[in-house]
Design goal:
single chain; alpha+beta; Glutaredoxin; four-stranded mixed β-sheet; 4 strands; binds glutathione; Glutathione S-transferase 3; Glutathione-S-Trfase_C_sf; transferase activity; Glutathione_S-Trfase; Glutathione-S-Trfase_C-like
Length: 232
């Protein structure tokens, strides 16, 4: 740790950066934390001083290099600090290919579906009152034609992947678990899952993540994590 220097996490309230904060706590990394507050749902100007995209999370290494994209940041943290591979699975079912595959599934495929839901909810919310019924009608149609079935497919798949193990990578949370929290919390808290009880193992998994002392420390250290708000 001392030879590397402390990395600095730029954390935005109610955002994907929470999963990096949780990972830092799980791994016992010494780090600096800079808390940013959304302005009208978006990043404040300070986040653009460290990276031109102004997104969060951003992890600034002691060398000054700035890492972005949660999956990339968490992979860096695991590669650097999980020297015994405790959070990388037992190597049998839970191997490196599974770690990449499930991480991509969560942060690309599922995140894309989640984004569609978030945009439609925001559009309905921002529409003038007379246009709202039309937007809500379009959203309802999209849900029954496509969205609900996609969510169902992904959550059923993950439920199956959790059979016989507590986390997606085994006995401890791994990269896909860190990533999934934000995506699942968005689906769940924004009421985008038609029948949450159809995925009992995912529901238990979510409770298990939040019961971990490292999760609780991350909640105390951050400046809020509520996915039901209408920010981007
Ligand atoms: N794919 C990126 C997403 C980063 C991202 O879009 N973060 C959002 C918060 S969830 C953000 O910074 N939003 C503020 C804005 O764009 O103004 C990741 O996984 O880290």
């Amino acid at each position: 740790m001392s030879t590397l220097g402390k990395p600095t996490l730029h954390y935005l309230n109610d955002s994907a950066s929470h999963r990096v904060l949780w990972a830092l706590e799980e791994l016992g990394v010494e780090y600096n934390l800079v808390l940013h507050q959304r302005i009208k749902g978006r990043s404040p100007p300070e986040l653009f001083k460290t990276h031109p995209l102004g997104k969060s999370p951003q992890l600034v290494l002691a060398t000054g290099r700035v890492l972005i994209e949660s999956s990339n940041v968490i992979k860096y943290l695991l590669d650097t600090y999980d020297t015994e591979g405790k959070f990388r699975g037992d190597g049998v079912r839970n191997d490196a290919i599974r770690e990449d595959e499930l991480s991509d599934l969560v942060s690309s495929s599922m995140n894309g579906i989640m984004g569609t839901g978030v945009i439609f909810l925001a559009l309905a919310h921002a529409s003038p009152f007379f246009a709202r019924p039309i937007m809500n009608g379009i959203w309802k149609g999209l849900r029954s034609a496509f969205f609900d079935a996609e969510v169902e497919k992904f959550l059923s798949y993950l439920d199956d992947q959790l059979k016989g193990q507590e986390f997606l990578m085994g006995a401890l949370p791994g990269r896909p678990d860190f990533l999934l929290t934000f995506v699942y919390d968005n689906f769940e808290q924004r009421k985008l899952i038609k029948t949450p009880s159809n995925y009992p193992l995912v529901q238990e998994w979510s409770k298990r993540c939040k019961a971990r002392p490292a999760w609780q420390r991350s909640m105390e250290k951050g400046n809020g994590y509520d996915c039901s708000t209408l920010g981007f």
